[in-house]
Amino acid sequence: MFESDKIMFEIYRDKHYNEKFHVVYYTELNEHNKHIEINRAMAGESYFDGFIRDYKKDEAKQIIEDIVKQLNEGKTVEKADIREKLKNYIP
User: Fold this and answer.
1) SS3 8
2) CB within 8 Å of 72: residues ≥ 6 apart
3) CA 36 → CA 1, 41, 68, 69, distances in Å?
4) Is there a contact between 18 and 1 (Cβ–Cβ < 8 Å)?
5) 52: burial class by Cβ within 10 Å (0-12, 13-18, 19+)?
6) What is the pLDDT of residues 2-49, one digit of tens each?
7) Quick one: which of 16, 85, 14, 74 has its CA closest to 24?
8) Minimal CA–CA distance to 44: which of 75, 23, 73, 65?
9) Structural contact between residues 85 and 63, judged by C-beta atoms closer than 8 angstroms
10) How far apart are CA 20 and CA 68, in angstroms?
């Protein structure tokens, strides 16, 4: 697997504005948004990070979005559960 075949992501919590959880896909950022998105994530509290395969990334992103939604609804999502849900998409 090449470096370009995986996507680096992070789920983080905004500590300053609304304390909501967000996800950023670092390796998909471009020159127009990378500084803003990286600064937001760095100012937040990291919850989970890792890589997903580029192959079937849309399925993996949907799982991640569902996790973020659950966290924002106040549900507890353990890191081990996140790894389990993403196990078929992690390089």
Assistant:
1) strand
2) 20, 21
3) 29, 9, 20, 22
4) no
5) buried
6) 556 899 999 999 988 789 999 999 999 999 899 999 999 999 999 999
7) 14
8) 23
9) yes
10) 9
